[in-house]
Amino acid sequence: MNPRIMVLAHNHPDLHPGGTEIFAHDLFHAYKRAGCDALFIGATNDVHRERRPGTSFQAINDAGDEMLFWAGHFDRFNMCQTDLYAVAPDFARLLKSWAPDVVHIHHLVLWGIELPMLIRRVLPNCRIVMTLHDYYQICPNDGLMIHRGTKTRYTKADAIGRLSGLDGFTPDQHAMRAVNLRNHLRAVDHFISPSEFLRDRYIEWGINPDRISVIHNGRPTVAPVPKRDIGTAGMPNVFGYFGNLNPWKGADVLLEAGRILAADMVDFNLRIHGVALYQTDQFTSRIADLVAQSGPQVHHIGAYQREDIPDLMARVDWVVVPSIWWENAPLVIQEAFQHGRPVITSSIGGMAEMVRHGHDGIHVRPDDPAELARVMKDCATNPKLWKKLSGHVRPPPGIDDVAEQYLAMIRRMVRPDFVAA
């Protein structure tokens, strides 16, 4: 018998197409294809949707099994729902009426750390699974595990918050935050991490190793686009960046590298796909200045839709993922591998796990434009290297295969005596 699964994310990909929302939504559809009854709920607030007084729920499309949950006001430091008494009764009624066997949580932002305990109180026999997509519970600096001011990375949180660089919070507040989050997460039956690196961080933070497993993310199967025809005299010299532009994704590092290459008279092209949503004027001005200073070889393509990716991938030889924080499982790396593109990426976190240095991509030191420029120059002028690396690229796991891994685990939780055929 297939379990009845409620899938919860901190937004819907139609409103905020981030990697977590996209994966959660894809997995939801894979659950349905596997024969499960499934319901997808994305939390939202007035950043993306206008409030509709009188109900906590809104439609997102014509599907009857997808909806939005109005999350009210959210305390990002404490990860708590400040409108709990306003929103909890409506969600509790939905839990009782839909009666899932399993609630699969993909994020607690907007929902609040109170969510697992609420589910446990309303449905004592329901199993709770949580996929940990980042480090929000560990690090109050938006889960980056990086100092806000100095950009110094750390792998283990400091009990009094000195490493996060946040202003306005006392050591006692940092300590109580960690205790409160760990206590609430006791209601979760099992955690999933898409990378070994992230799993290790949560074990160091206090999650029992027996309660957290690794299942790598997957992608819906797509036909790979052909590799760019470089001809007998051409070079694999077109680089692509895909994703949001923010201070932690390293787009400015890549643009600095592009400026170095242009000044060095290297024959290359760099295509920047994405926009700087919700960023400071200082950062957006810096990006615009770097693009302008790099000359005609650097093109800021701008926003793109999911359906545009194959066409955009067809125009590049390499995908660059220059993040300066501990990315866990970047969607763009899997998209690049789906289309046979080798990846140049920072040598840290889940990025270093996903890309095998010298096999299907190249590792570079994070936040080092000079080294990145040197590597890009080597890649742009070495067809044999490109042919070798692109020849070793393999597509990521299919989302339906990943769903089966989740379901095998879920069935054992719902029915401990279950044995797969």
TrEMBL record:
Residues 17-218 form the Glycosyltransferase subfamily 4-like N-terminal domain. This is Glycosyltransferase. It comes from Thalassospira indica. Residues 230-389 form the Glycosyl transferase family domain.
